[in-house]
Design brief:
six-stranded mixed beta sheet, elongated, 15 helices, 10 strands
């Protein structure tokens, strides 16, 4: 798409200017010699311009189809490279090769459709110019014989016409360039003109800092008109308090924590930060005070150091080493030949699942946020490493509000308050001891997980 637009801004504009200048200077000279011959020369061009206008619409449509199919091919290739381990694990190499082959065949077919139309247009241009020259030679010869124009004038007229031949031929090519560029620009404008759905409200207040108190009042949330994912959530988290969130898969845990940094738009008067309605807090201020480790860890194809420093403005290596130590990643990094300058590949492909999560934790910790959100951030580490990380985080979380999401109750049992979600609603809440004493679903989950750990140790 960028290449097609660049062609418009380069050769497209250059040849268009060349054609305009040639017509402005040459056509008056031709009319001066013989208006009759000039009319005969340009009548076929009027017919040609109509044909080109019709064909250009078809070229635009087919060029857009070609660009869309090329995008599909690029996406397929990228997915195959990124997911090569999954493809090999499921022995799907032949399937993906065949899928890629079919996409390319479609691309060739669409290109051939577009080429046919371009061929017709270019052939029409050359044919029209040829007919125009033939008519001029016939009629011009007659005018010379009758003495209406001299042989020198006729020669000059043909010279002027020759000057216009290349601009006329280039006209079809330029139109093709503009049509391809137009189709590509349309696709690019879909991105450029996309307006963020979540923006600062007109009522936003000049807030600069956040202490970390979170209050959720009767929150009901749904995605794009679907069934509610969260129902009547009501909980208060004091500044510096740790909230544990547990529940089965699909209970709404990740959705709840994703609403705190306003990654999704939420109903008004449902979430308050420091007693201020969340829509009244500038988004940049809100998110700059939050350190988040999402469930789906995303790392950049860069060095370990740059991934840790991603969320901060400074480049303090000592701080990065401290954050890696808190996340229990330091010893692993020290074992790498390049240490913190090790490039981890696309999405951290060279790291294990546990190392990815610990690197994401270090990236959040180094910001020293007022609100720390760990969304199942310890699911890929062993229990021993998890205990070490939680021990190191405990000192960090002392003065920070923490939302700790996990499937393992062992991870959240030290939290100041715990809520148990089921089908988007809070069904039990309290401290670990209170919930165990309640002998409900939480207690049942806890007993089963303890039994699973005991069996694993046998």
């Amino acid at each position: 798409d960028l290449s097609a637009v660049r062609d418009v801004l380069g050769p497209g504009i250059m040849y268009t200017a060349n054609t305009i200048i040639a017509f402005v200077y040459v056509v008056p000279m031709m009319i001066h010699i013989s208006p009759q011959l000039t009319l005969l020369a340009f009548v076929p061009l009027l017919v040609l311009s109509f044909a080109i206008n019709q064909l250009s619409k078809l070229i635009h449509h087919r060029s857009q189809k070609v660009q869309e199919k090329l995008s599909d091919i690029s996406s397929c290739a990228q997915e195959n490279f990124s997911g090569i381990r999954v493809i090999k694990s499921f022995v799907r190499e032949d399937h993906e090769i065949e899928k890629f082959r079919l996409l390319n065949l479609d691309y060739v077919r669409l290109n051939m459709d577009a080429v046919r139309v371009r061929g017709i247009m270019m052939s029409s241009v050359v044919l029209t110019i040829g007919l125009s020259v033939a008519v001029l030679l016939w009629q011009g010869g007659r005018l010379v014989m009758t003495g209406d124009i001299t042989l020198g004038q006729f020669t000059a007229f043909n010279f002027y016409l020759a000057v216009l031949i290349w601009p006329m031929i280039a006209l079809g090519w330029v139109i093709n360039i503009f049509q391809r560029g137009s189709a590509s620009m349309k696709r690019m404008n879909e991105i450029f003109k996309t307006v963020p759905r979540i923006i600062d409200a007109p009522s936003v207040k000049p807030i600069k800092t956040i202490e970390g108190k979170i209050e959720i009042r009767n929150l009901t949330f749904q995605y794009n008109g679907s069934d509610p994912v969260l129902k009547n959530i009501h909980v208060t988290i004091r500044a510096g308090m740790t909230l544990g969130i547990v529940g089965h898969t699909g209970s709404g845990k990740s959705t709840l924590v994703n609403l705190i940094p306003r990654l999704y738009e939420i109903p008004k008067n449902t979430i308050f930060i420091d007693d201020v309605e969340i829509h009244d807090i500038p988004i940049n201020v809100l998110r700059s005070h939050i350190g988040m480790v999402p469930q789906d860890t995303f790392l950049f194809s860069d060095t370990i150091l740059n991934n840790i420093l991603f969320g901060v403005a400074h480049t303090d290596t000592g701080k990065a080493v401290w954050a890696a130590d808190v996340a229990q990643l330091k010893s692993n990094v020290e074992d790498f030949p390049e240490k913190y300058d090790t490039v981890i590949g696309e999405r951290g492909i060279t790291l294990s699942g546990g190392q990815k999560q610990r690197l994401a934790i270090a990236r959040a910790v180094i910001r020293e946020p007022k609100i720390l959100i760990l969304d199942d951030a310890l699911s890929s580490v062993d229990t021993h490493t998890e205990d070490e990380i939680l021990t190191r985080l405990k000192a960090l979380m002392k003065d920070r509000t923490t939302m700790l999401v996990s499937h393992r109750i062992q991870t959240v049992k030290q939290a100041d308050w715990i809520i148990l979600l089921s089908e988007g609603a809070i069904i039990e809440q309290g401290t670990h001891e209170q919930l165990v004493a309640l002998d409900g679903i939480y207690a049942d989950m806890y007993q089963r997980q303890l039994l699973e750990e005991e069996i694993a140790e046998i």
